Amino acid sequence: MTTALVDGTANVFLRMVWPTGNSTPYTPTYSMEESMVARGDVDGALAHYGAAMRLHPTDPDLRFRVAELLFRSPSPAKAATYFIEGRQLAGDKRGKELYATQRLIDLYLGPLGNPVGALVELTRLVDRFPGTREAESAAAMIARLKQGTMES
């Protein structure tokens, strides 16, 4: 009994002094790719992200990183594919689903100038996140877009 108590206390103390990291999963940072982007080598960063996606095919955050790069590129249409893939990979992580949906709306209303695509995503947001501030804003935007369409 005394030995077990001493061992248990020692183990708790050791975990405080020398943590193992087992309780906190590693989150990749992709600092090399970020530095490549900062230096203007977007194509190189995209190639590295592509390799990372092949190694980690179920990681939605990699898709979001690529989508953000493409969002600001001369080819923003490709970003939609990665936002959608990331959203699908996120599964039941509602925060990631909301993020991807909002960025798709930004993409369609911004660089792509595609109000129909925006309406699809705004409707999805209202359906998937009822009663939220985001859904209320989306409903108001749907009304404005429809009003603008009918006035044309």
What is this entry, summarized?
By secondary structure, this protein is mainly alpha-helical.
Poorly predicted regions are none
What is the H-and-E element order?
A: HHHHHHHH
Q: End-to-end distance, in Å?
A: 83 Å
pLDDT averaged over residues: 89
The structure class reads mainly alpha
Please state the oligomeric state of the protein chains shown. Answer: single chain
Global outline: flat
Number of strands: 0
User: Count of helical segments?
Assistant: 8
Rg? 22 Å
Beta-strand fraction estimate: under 5%
For the largest beta-sheet, the strand count, sense and barrel status come to:
none
**Could you estimate the helical fraction of the residues in percent?**
over 70%
Characterization of this structure:
With 152 residues, the chain is mainly alpha-helical. It has a domain at 59-151. The chain contains eight helices and no strands. It has helices at residues 2-17, 31-38, 42-55, 60-71, 77-90, 94-109, 115-128, 133-151. α6 (94-109) packs antiparallel against α7 (115-128). The longest helix has 19 residues, at 133-151. The radius of gyration is 22 Å and the shape is flat. The mean pLDDT is 89.
Helix-strand layout with pairing:
Layout: H1 2-17, H2 31-38, H3 42-55, H4 60-71, H5 77-90, H6 94-109, H7 115-128, H8 133-151
List keywords for this structure.
152 residues; mainly alpha
